[in-house]
Every structure is written in structure tokens, then in C-alpha cells.
Amino acid sequence: MLSAIRRFFKDKNSSEVARERMQFVLMHDRVDLTPDIMEGLKNDILAVFARYMEIDQSSIQVNLEQGKGYTALVSNVHIKKVFRKK
Amino acid sequence: MAGKTIVVTSGKGGVGKTTTVANIGTALAKKGHNVVLIDADIGLRNLDVVMGLENRIVYNLVDIVEGKCKSAQAMIRDRKLSNLHVIPSAQTREKDAVNPAQMKSLCAELTEQFDFVFIDCPAGIERGFKNAIAAADVAIVVTTPEVSAIRDADRVIGLLEANLVKETHLIVNRVNQKMVKKGDMMSVGDIVTLLSVSLLGIIPESEDVVVSTNRGVPLVHDRSSRPGIAYTKVAARLEGEEIPLDEDNGVKLMDRVKRFFMG
Q1: Which of A36, A81, B43, B206 gets the highest tally of CB atoms within 10 A of its CB?
Q2: What is the DSSP string of A22-83?
Q3: Which ipTM was obtained for this model?
């Protein structure tokens, strides 16, 4: 019944939800990166970037991505201005 | 306040221990009790995904016993119920990272704040099992109507008695009434007679279980789900309510009327 209603409202079906959740969980399990480590990593990356350029602190994203046979750490930061040496 | 510590165990793997912990715990929290669920399966963490809390883990059970954090810091609050918490297991540690004395002291601390402390026991009867049952006042043994699960349940019931767990109850999971009627599956009555232990609940086999774990939302949130209703009844029985144990949970009214008259 509930799944019928969900389908009507074009909600994701549960197998899709499960696949996405498991991709996330397994990737993190394999590299053993807990959310607090990710948070620490994110802060360190921000600190390094901040030495060289002005960045949008709130824009940073650090994600694990699964490729064929490898796991990649992908970070995305918006640059506002690069400091020039005078 | 002195809450109860309840271990959910089975011997055999894959019979529905984690699903049972998630659903009874959620049902009791919905009724207003303060509930904490501990995943004692060190190395094979799963309660977090069944509860849909996998991306909120910071600390875990091993961190607590090793003194790396306070128990409150490792507790993840449920997404819907603020009086429901989960202590996740450690994924990359060994079973011997925790010992029975540490489990006892943790549960003693938790029962001061919570009405119900549930422990999700790992499969098997070795170290992990001994840790999980050490602090339990009550044990719930989960089985399915299959010979291998029943045999393991019997072994576990014996071990629980030997370890002086005062109260042991049985949940028969994945009961398929159609098969029972055709004579292709042992009935709950048969199983209870074989194991001679008090019956706490009968959970019908249902596709809902896979859908619920897919989404990480326990079945008891869905009022139309038959296994969800069955788990809600188990929770009420744990509160002391007397609800008749109906093998035909959810069977059409006409069929029941027919059976009543035909005997």
C-alpha cells in the first residue's frame, strides 16, 4: 500500500535507495574513514588552501567516489581570489 | 530508574536478530519509553544501516569501553524519535576488543537513564555471544521454522540457562501460514513444543522486511505492514500487556470465522 503511494508520487523505489546507501557504506567501510575523520580532513584541506588563496569556506565538499578498481577522494572548493606574491 | 537489559540472540546467523532489535526498540520508543540499542556484533556492524543511521557514526562501542569517549557521545539519536538511540559497533576491530565485565558496567550505567537497553548479539556462541549476554536480564531468542535455526536456538537456550539468564523468550520469525497449512512448514506450536520456552511473538514472512531495510526505516513505522504490527505486539507484551498470540496474524476475518465453526 505504502509502496504504491510512493510510486504514485514518483518517490525513488527502495532498491534504488538501498543501492545508493550501500555504495556509500561499503566505500567507507573499505577505506575505514569515519565521518569525524572526514570532517578533520575537510578542515585540514581548507587550512592548506587558505594559505594560498581566498576560498569560499562553505563550498567545500569532500567525497569518496568509487571507480573501477579504485576509490578516489574528490574534493571541490570554490576559489574567490588567488594571492599574488609581490 | 532501573531499566531492563534485553539481549536478542539466535545462534544461527541471518534469522532476523538485527531486524528484531530495530523494530522492538523502535516500537517501545514510539510508546514513549527511553530506549538504547547496542550493536554488539564487533567487526560486522549492521544495526546502523537497518536503522538508517550509518552516516552519523562518530564513536562506537569499543571507543566507549576503551575510554576514548563517554557513552553519550557514541549514541546516535534516531531520525524520527528523540527518545531512541543506537550505539554502533566497531567495524574494524576484533570480538576480543570488549569483555563481559565491560559490557556489564556499560549496561549498568545505561539502565540508569534508559527503560530498555537492547543488545544485538552476533551469530555464534563464542566470545561475541558471551559479551552480549553478560549483562542481560532477559534474552529473546529468534528462530525461523527451519531445522538448522531451531537446532541452534535450542543450543543457545541451553547456554543462556547455564549462564543464569533469568528469563528467556522465543520469537518465531518468517512464518509462512500458507506453507504451514499445506504441511510444508513446522507450525509455531510445533516449534514451541520442541524448544519448550515461552513464546513472545510470531512474525509473518513478508517482502516488507527487505523494503524496510533498503530504506533504513523500521517496519513498525508503517501501520499497514503485517510484520510491523507483529513487532508492535511483541513490544506491548514486553510492557506486560496480555495480547493473544495468534498464529494467523493478519489472516482474513472470513477464514477465521470459517475455522471457528469448522474446528
Answers
A1: B206
A2: HHHHHHHHHHT--HHHHHHHHHHHHHHHHHHEEEEEEEEEEEEEEETTEEEEEEEEEEEEEP
A3: 0.71
B38, B87 Cβ separation under 8 angstroms: yes
Tell me which long-range contacts B220-224 makes (C-beta under 8 A, separation of at least 24). B220/B23, B220/B26, B220/B27, B220/B30, B221/B26, B221/B80, B222/A2, B224/A1, B224/A2
**pTM: predicted TM-score of the whole model, two decimal places:** 0.83
How many domains are there within chain A? 2
From chain B, pick out residues whose CB is under 8 angstroms from the CB of A1: 224
Phi and psi angles of residue B173, each rounded to the nearest 5 degrees, phi first:
-105, 155
Residue of chain A whose alpha carbon sits nearest to that of B60: A34
Residues A1 and A38 in one domain: no
Asked if A19 and A2 sit in the same domain, the reply is yes
- Whether residues A23 and A40 share a domain: the answer is no
Q: How far is A11 from chain B (nearest CA, A)?
A: 12
What are the sequence ranges of the domains in chain B? 4-262
A6 in contact with chain B, both atoms CB, cutoff 8 A: no
**What is the span of the domain harbouring residue A44?**
33-86
CB pairs under 8 A between A and B: 37
Fold of B4-262: Rossmann fold (3.40.50)
pLDDT tens column, A15-48: 888 888 887 887 877 787 777 788 889 999 999 9
Q: From the CA of B1, how many Å to the nearest CA of chain A?
A: 33
Question: Which range among B10-14, B38-42, B92-96 shows the weakest confidence by mean pLDDT?
Answer: B92-96
SS3 call for B229: helix
The angle formed by the CA atoms of residues A58, A60 and A66, to the nearest 5 degrees, is 150
Secondary structure class of B4 (helix, strand, coil) = strand
Contact status of A34 with chain B (Cβ, < 8 Å): yes
Task: Enter the DSSP assignment of B55.
Answer: G
**B contact set with A (CB within 8 A):** 49, 52, 54-59, 91-92, 210-211, 213-216, 222, 224-225
Contact list in B for residue A3 (CB cut-off 8 A) is: 211
Q: What residue has cell string 594559505?
A: A51
